[in-house]
What we know:
elongated, 10 strands, mainly beta, single chain
Amino acid sequence: MEPVARHQPQPVEHSSKYRLEGDNSMYRLASGLVAPVVTRGGHEDPGTADSGGAVRISGVSIQHTPATKLWFGKVSNEPGYRSVTHHHGEAETGGYVLSGRARIYFGEKFEDYVDMAEGDWVFVPPFMPHIECNLSRSKPLTWMTTRTPENIVVNLPDVADADLRDWLNR
Length: 170
């Protein structure tokens, strides 16, 4: 989405107070301007990779902004949801729990897990197989998630619910 300029940009004189480090011309918009790009609420891109029922929408991604090394979006999980076993390839993943209670299973036979609540942050290393879960049986879970370089999702053979420690009796 092309930004709407409210004021004509003034030429910047290169003084000791302002100096552009690097070349950002690859982010030039059709207007020729290099500017922030806003994705308005309700206009996010829903065409993202899936891990079995997680609803992912991107606000900043290669699909609809000039971003080439970043995916930033919102992930929603219904009550009782658990993803299929997956990893995110070469992507480093950061997450923030906006609302709800989450669990991520990982490790040998997915015997380990970490639990998170609203306000918690998580880092998931590249290529780490894991399963994302909504611990609540009655409330949705919403995450903000960012990945570099892109929203890579590689689904793997799944694990039965009964094989996930403490999942059925949560």
